[in-house]
Amino acid sequence: MPSASPSSSSGAPASKDFSESSATVHSDAATAAPGSTAATAVLDRPERDGRVEAPLVLDTEPPRTLRFRDHFALWMNLGVSLIGFTTAATVLGAPGSELSLAAAITAIVAGTAVGTAMLGVAALIGARTGAPAMANLRGLFGTRLSYVPTVLNIVQCLGWGVYELLVIAMGAQTVAHTEGYRWVFVVLAGAVTTALTIWPLGAIAVLRRFVAAAVAVAMVYFTVQLGRHGVPDPGAGNWHGFLRATDAMIAVSISFVPLAADYTRHSRTPRAAFWGSFSGYTIAQVWCYVLGLFALLQADGDATRIFDSFLGVWAGWVFLLVLVLRETDQSFANVYSTAMSVHNLLPRVDRRVLTGGTGLLITVLALQITEFTDSYYAFLGLIGSVFVPMFAVLAVDYFLGAGRRGWNLADDAPSRWLMLLPWALGFAVYQLIAPTAVAGWWTDFWTSVQEVLHFTPQEWTSASLFGFLVPALATWALTPLTRRQPAAA
After folding, report:
1. Which residues, listed in sequence order, are joined to residue 377 by a DSSP beta bridge?
2. How many CB atoms lie within 10 A of CB 348?
3. If we measure between CA atoms, which residue out of 220, 173, 163 comes closest to residue 321?
4. The predicted structure's pLDDT at residue 373
5. pLDDT at 236
6. Residue 340 confidence (pLDDT)
7. What's the pLDDT at 235?
8. What pLDDT shows up at residue 17?
9. CA 168 – CA 366 distance, rounded (Å)
10. Does residue 59 contact residue 22 with C-beta atoms inside 8 Å?
11. Whole-number pLDDT of residue 89
12. What integer pLDDT is reported at residue 381 of this predicted model?
């Protein structure tokens, strides 16, 4: 697929004005030029201390306030996570067959760059349409059919939201050197998360002004301190497993693709949305995983002891506390995007009610769960594998198919059943290459399909890449048919 320019002057035109699809705006806004600041400055939207905030309902034009630096700060914060430090083990490999340090770092950089490019394209589309991520799927599938991926995304965001609260609580316990007070940390994390989602644009401003700088200082400090202790290289010279590690990093990088447009719909320009998300997330995730790699190697490859490396340096607890507090931006993203997804189903329900209810729900669930099972991780992974091929279909259709004339994002957008075909094909390819171990019967089914097709996955058969390329090509092949479908009015 030809690469998409992140500028607003090329590629597909903006879709049918999202606010006009189902909302009533003030008369002076309606007469302003599409996309002009006048067209967004007078619409009903909540304000806090004179600051413009995100709309309360789906059918209101979003304020376009976010600049490059806002996107950069948001995605830089989302690119750093406590989970990223611990999952550096998936890149390094099993003990006894570790990648060399050079190979592991190269895999981190390459996989992150590829996956974040996809994230940037999703961010770009959101900035052009002005619609949240799941509402954009109305243009791809039609309103009714868009409910299917919307429900899956709600489940995914809820699952990861609960997980993030538990990660924050465990991080706080580590810093405090205690195994108690878990419920206190969960409740506090849930309360902060919910407050951030009530004023999302204000939260992004706080991230830019204060949190991003604090996180950068903490990351620099740990990088210097761990570097001074030296980094062992048990897999020196080994590049076997490099492509597997690269594929793992691609999968991590594209995990935010179904959420990106929820934030970039507020971008002043598509260019700022693309480059802000791409550069911020790429730099942060590479830094996070490389630092996690250093800490892991100093802990003799034991992922359960990785935070001992951080606490082992002078004043390490102070800087680790900064990263623990920063983790609330991960739970913020999951809770807010849950509400944005529900808005695709219930467009006129107050956003604050949805985010408040979601925040309460994940807090209650986190209080009931003590640990996550492997099957739970696998279930979330299965849902995640749905969105890799779906994004391929979305991107190709937007830039090369029906989206070239503008998508119809209205409440009555007609169903486009044909677009389900490449999506299903991509999901099948993904599972054929890397069956998700969600249940024995599921794995057995795909293993039997491999045997029937005489197919054996090789190291170079990346599930993420082929799960993207195959549906992308299939969607492109269908464009002569899909272009004939009615475009936006």
Report:
1. none
2. 12
3. 173
4. 63
5. 87
6. 96
7. 87
8. 45
9. 11
10. yes
11. 86
12. 72
Would you say the C-alpha torsion 364, 369, 375, 378 has a positive or negative sign? positive
Q: How many CB atoms lie within 10 A of CB 227?
A: 11
Predicted pLDDT of residue 257: 93
pTM equals 0.85
> From its phi and psi, is residue 366 left (phi > 0), alpha (psi between -120 and 50) or beta?
alpha
Q: Give CA–CA dist 282/299, Å, rounded.
A: 26
Size (the chain), residues: 489
The amino acid that residue 278 corresponds to is F
3-class SS string, the chain: CCCCCCCCCCCCCCCCCHHHHHCCCCHHHHCCCCCCCHHHHCCCCCEECCEECCCCCCCCCCCCCECHHHHHHHHHHHHCCHHHHHCCHHHHCCCCCCCCHHHHHHHHHHHHHHHHHHHHHHHHHHHHHCCCHHHHHHHHHCHHHHHHHHHHHHHHHHHHHHHHHHHHHHHHHHHHCCCCCHHHHHHHHHHHHHHHHHCHHHHHHHHHHHHHHHHHHHHHHHHHHHHHCCCCCCCCCCCCCHHHHHHHHHHHHHHHCCCCHHHHCCECCHHHHHHHHHHHHHHHHHHHHHHHHHHHHHCCCCHHHHHHHHHCCCCHHHHHHHHHHHCHHHHHHHHHHHHHHHHHHCCCCCHHHHHHHHHHHHHHHHHHCCCCCHHHHHHHHHHHHHHHHHHHHHHHHHHHCHHHHCCCCCCCCCCCHHHHHHHHHHHHHHHHHCCCCCCHHHHHHHHHHHHHCCCCCCCCCCHHHHHHHHHHHHHHHHHHHHCCCCCCC
**356 burial level (CB within 10 Å; 0-12, 13-18, 19+):** middle
Alpha-carbon distances of 147 from 54, 80, 345, 381, rounded to whole Å: 23, 31, 7, 20
Distance CA 169, CA 185 (A): 5
* Average pLDDT per block of 10 residues along the chain, 489 residues long: 40 48 34 33 42 87 94 94 87 88 95 94 96 95 95 92 92 90 94 94 86 92 91 88 88 90 96 97 96 91 85 91 92 95 94 96 91 66 84 95 89 93 95 86 92 89 90 94 59
Q: Of the candidates 151, 149, 157, 154, which has an alpha carbon nearest to the alpha carbon of residue 419?
A: 149
Nearest to 333 by CA among 277, 407, 390, 251: 277
pLDDT of residue 359: 96
Question: What tokens does 288 get?
Answer: 């996070």
